[in-house]
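Fill in residues.
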């Protein structure tokens, strides 16, 4: 779609609407929008639950020369079937609650500890009526760039991200201690017994991975058999992961912590200097092992080893512990590194399950058919898309390596 078609699709995007957002942000009633355009900010295969658009605005303040401002618009899917399905998962409602109630408290506490960096993009407008949408700051204006999904995240990128995740986890754990009610909308389990829409995807991914594993030279037939067996148990195992143990250390998980939901700033040399998280739509209150396994198993580059996983969890723990202490949590209440490593083992199956189809999704070259319909559907087009998805040679390279690790850890049993 070109800019005119996108504006026609979302008729609320008027000059007056954008002028109001700009005036609120700039705190200047003299702002006048001269022109604006709308384009897609992401391609297919990079976001499956919403339209992500970039709005470029040319505006004036008083009699100054023209200035340019851009925003990111996130709009709930309006396709009838997909919209109804995502409504059941409550994704927009959870993100609204996060931005209205939780993020302001996180930012307040971070300032108290003299931490100045942001954990999430600023939100300039939330609309709870259809079409539900957010207007976010455009992080690209501040120098952030999307990570390379095809390569995955290298060791330094993972360190930078895990430092932010540790502060996010520590702060939300502290907030929960003060007010348990604030997380009441984030106890919805992302895999549960009531909502079945993604069951087929999870089961089929295990079967296709098993079929592929049978042909891979370093993968034993035993591992392939275990993957076939997981077709029957993958849902119950995932439901168990999303069951909170109140006696353990719990945090607000980002919930969708993979390469597509992180951006980086870079030095001129290309070295990353800062990470930031986006898309808090399926945040979930529970074990930090969910975020950690999800990230490490789905999004690490091929150069990141399974030994590196332990080192990265240790790096995360260092920042988690330091930030909890900054918030005044007593040493007796701070989890140990062993506690966190055990959480990755207890909850790591979720990373296993998602890695079977998110790794091929991030490797995909042709994204023309990459949408939820083809991931979940039963049409010939959908089935062909899924068959091609799992044939990428780099999928074999990474999954063959990971499957042996998963088996050693007992995740496949």
């Amino acid at each position: 779609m070109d800019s005119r078609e996108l504006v026609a699709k979302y008729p609320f995007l008027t000059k007056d609407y954008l002028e109001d957002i700009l005036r609120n942000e700039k705190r200047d009633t003299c702002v006048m929008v001269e022109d604006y355009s709308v384009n897609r900010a992401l391609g297919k295969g990079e976001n499956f639950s919403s339209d992500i658009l970039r709005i470029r605005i040319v505006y004036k303040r008083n009699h100054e020369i023209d200035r340019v401002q851009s925003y990111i618009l996130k709009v709930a899917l309006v396709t009838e079937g997909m919209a109804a399905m995502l409504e059941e998962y409550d994704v927009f409602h959870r993100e609204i609650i996060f931005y209205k109630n939780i993020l302001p408290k996180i930012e307040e506490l971070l300032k108290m500890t003299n931490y100045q960096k942001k954990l999430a993009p600023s939100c300039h407008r939330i609309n709870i009526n259809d079409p539900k949408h957010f207007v976010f700051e455009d992080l690209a204006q501040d120098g952030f760039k999307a990570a390379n999904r095809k390569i995955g995240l290298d060791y330094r990128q993972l360190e930078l991200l895990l430092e932010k995740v540790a502060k996010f986890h520590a702060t939300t754990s502290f907030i929960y201690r003060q007010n348990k009610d604030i997380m009441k909308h984030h106890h919805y389990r992302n895999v549960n017994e009531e909502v079945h829409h993604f069951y087929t995807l999870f089961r089929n991914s295990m079967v296709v991975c098993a079929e592929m594993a049978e042909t891979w030279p370093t993968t034993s037939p035993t591992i392939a058999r275990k993957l076939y067996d997981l077709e029957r148990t993958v849902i119950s195992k995932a439901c168990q992961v999303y069951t909170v143990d109140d006696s353990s250390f719990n945090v607000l998980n980002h919930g969708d912590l993979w390469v597509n939901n992180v951006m980086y700033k870079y030095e001129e040399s290309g070295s990353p200097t800062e990470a930031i998280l986006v898309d808090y739509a399926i945040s979930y209150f529970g074990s930090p092992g969910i975020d950690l396994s999800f990230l490490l198993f789905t999004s690490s580059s091929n150069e990141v080893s399974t030994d590196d996983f332990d080192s990265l969890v240790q790096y995360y723990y260092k920042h988690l512990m330091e930030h909890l202490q900054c918030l005044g949590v007593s040493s007796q209440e701070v989890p140990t590194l062993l506690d966190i490593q055990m959480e990755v083992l207890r909850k790591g199956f979720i990373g296993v399950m998602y890695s079977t189809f998110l790794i091929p999704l991030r490797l995909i070259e042709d994204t023309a058919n990459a949408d939820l319909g083809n991931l979940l559907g039963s049409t010939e087009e959908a089935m062909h898309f899924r068959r091609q998805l799992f044939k990428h040679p780099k999928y074999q390279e990474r999954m063959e390596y990971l499957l042996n690790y998963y088996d050693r850890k007992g995740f496949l049993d």
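The radius of gyration is 22 Å.
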